[in-house]
Amino acid sequence: MLCPVAPNWCVAYPAFVNDSALLNQLLTGILILDDRLTIRYVNSSAESLLDHSAKRLLGEPFTAAFYQCSLASETLVECLNSAQTVLNAEVQFALHSGHDIRVETSIQTVEKEFGRALLLELKQVDQLRRINKEDQQRNQLFATQHLLRGMAHEIKNPLGGLRGAAQLLARQLPDESLTEYTDLIISQSDRLRYLVDRLLGPAKRGESQATNIHEVLERVARTLTYEYGDSLKLIRDYDPSLPDIEVVAEGCEQVFLNIAQNAAQAMSGKGTIVVKTRVEHQLTLFGQRYRQCAVVTLTDNGPGIPTELHDTLFYPLISGRAEGTGLGLSLAQNLVHQHKGKIDFDSRPGKTQFSVYLPYVSENGNEVTDDH
Question: Where in this chain does the record put each Histidine kinase domain (predicted)?
């Protein structure tokens, strides 16, 4: 919808845009384009939305910020020439990173030292949905862990008594051949105890250290190759400039292996898994904003996850396979949360993608400021 710009806003806003530190705290993406539609300013949220750093965007044409966009350049020129505005128009962007986003866009004119300019405000339409999904995931994890710890206490106590009684009984048996039955009771009690411990996962994340995430992924790749051979194709799309990250390497290896094993098993060991690493900037995870996050995506071309499992996929004992235990993804989610990260997935027949977000934070919880 086109309408005249409020003149007071045009006068007041230039003073406001000079405070880049303040604009960088906004969740709304802000861009300023000159009369040639060249990008003259971009804030942190716009960097995150467009998957490009300010260094790469500044001085470039607006059309260089994306692969495809439903907002016509003619609309921008019309707004610029006639001092009109567009309010809350939904625009679809296909980004160079391969992501597709829907953005609520407002366009207004401002007077700058270089002449009349366009100010674009970008609000990601699905951002609220993402925040709600993060809250649901976090609440789901806390509720599940609380339930499991209560169950573990109730199960382990009688198991300990059962195991102790079997040991005492074994000493009283007159025939040693009968101890095979008490040995079975003891071994099955130990198996159940191990299962309960796996359900709970590690209570603490362990000791973290600077880790090359590609070395971790290569260990996972070797494991898959040993098990499935050439029938499973692994494609690597690594960012060679990815900085080392403070993580528990063994825990991260378990996370990636669980996801990759699920993908391989869903495809019966015959298919393709693409492993991709990137750095994303200015991401908000569970209400906390991070300057940089390592993002590892594992994409397969299998049959997809059944729709009815999407909302409960990270619950323990939930599995799409009859022979599955349903523990792998629950454990993976717990390990990633201990690193202040999150797991996302998107699935449809022919393409399932899991994305693991790991923020650059030190072991004491402080954010790592790397100029990658």
Answer: 150-362
